[in-house]
Amino acid sequence: MDFNVKKLVKDAGVALSRVVQLTEETLGTSEKTELDAHFEHLADRANATKSWTEKVLRNMEAMLTPNPGNRIEDFFYEKIDKKKPNRLSNLEYVGIDMIEAGNDFGPGIAYGSALIKVGHCQQKLGQIERDFIGTAANCYIQPLRKFLDGEMKTISKEMSILEIKRLDLDSCKKRVRKARSMLGQQSESGISPEVILDQAERELRVAQSEFDRQAEITKLLLEGVSSSQAGHLRCLHEFVEAQTRHYAQCHAAMQELQRELAGVSGSSFHPTTSINSNQLMENGQQQARVVFDYKAKNGDELSVLQDEVIRITKIPEDDDFILGFQGNQCGRVPKAFLEILSYK
């Protein structure tokens, strides 16, 4: 292989000059060209955007895929451009075990039937979760990763080039100052100090031009970070919408499960109030949604949680409370804490 010795020597000399210039700046023995305040502001904002985007991205990936091993595996498959494995979620594994247990106990008994119903619900929740993870990855994670791997890497590269141009510029300024200080003196090389100064000034003009050009290129890229943030805002809205749909679907699935479990045969209720069963049958039952959390204040009341759906029936001669059924328990609940939905 042929080597251009002169070019290698020149490049080595330039690199050494940059190192010397940077060292002198660090020690405070050499002046440093400062960028304008607007440029520095853009650079600081870009660095903050990069730092926070990386942190948000890591936390989002950990939230959607808690298992670190699975995240590493997914990363590996992405790098080799291969489809990710279709692994089951923890909810789906729980659902499978519950269904198998229910079938083993016997779907004809209350507990076996309930296990099967809950197991199917867990599988449904697992699929809802899988759909949400895929949507979140497409609408938010991928755009953030593309931003970091594309735009921010380009900015970092151009900033590095700008720093090199700045070091070259300051090195030229130093040579010009030195050449001016030698005017009127005898040069050791035999070259006239005026000639040395003229050459140093030409090199300074070239270095200044290259620095200004690189600063303008980098500045335009830094200003583009604002438009990237606007794009990230749209992606964030899409993520929130996907998360809203996800929790709404989960809530609907759990409400449906509550209704199914309420009809499982073999359920027994032990009222803590003095209302007898004939009164309950006469009054009939309805369903109600809990509007606010309520904690029972005595033994004949029932504690309920917000958004929980319970069965209710009227209590004769009591306009403030209603009798609520929750699993195998029942008790009085203030009417003001409930929203009546429909007759059962």
TrEMBL record:
<dbReference type="InterPro" id="IPR004148">
    <property type="entry name" value="BAR_dom"/>
</dbReference>
<dbReference type="GO" id="GO:0061024">
    <property type="term" value="P:membrane organization"/>
</dbReference>
<dbReference type="Pfam" id="PF07653">
    <property type="entry name" value="SH3_2"/>
</dbReference>
<feature type="domain" description="SH3">
    <location>
        <begin position="283"/>
        <end position="343"/>
    </location>
</feature>
<feature type="domain" description="BAR">
    <location>
        <begin position="24"/>
        <end position="270"/>
    </location>
</feature>
<dbReference type="InterPro" id="IPR050384">
    <property type="entry name" value="Endophilin_SH3RF"/>
</dbReference>
<dbReference type="Pfam" id="PF03114">
    <property type="entry name" value="BAR"/>
</dbReference>
<comment type="similarity">
    <text>Belongs to the endophilin family.</text>
</comment>
<protein>
    <submittedName>
        <fullName>Endophilin-B1</fullName>
    </submittedName>
</protein>
<keyword id="KW-0728">SH3 domain</keyword>
<dbReference type="GO" id="GO:0005737">
    <property type="term" value="C:cytoplasm"/>
</dbReference>
<dbReference type="GO" id="GO:0016020">
    <property type="term" value="C:membrane"/>
</dbReference>
<dbReference type="InterPro" id="IPR001452">
    <property type="entry name" value="SH3_domain"/>
</dbReference>
<dbReference type="InterPro" id="IPR036028">
    <property type="entry name" value="SH3-like_dom_sf"/>
</dbReference>
<dbReference type="InterPro" id="IPR027267">
    <property type="entry name" value="AH/BAR_dom_sf"/>
</dbReference>
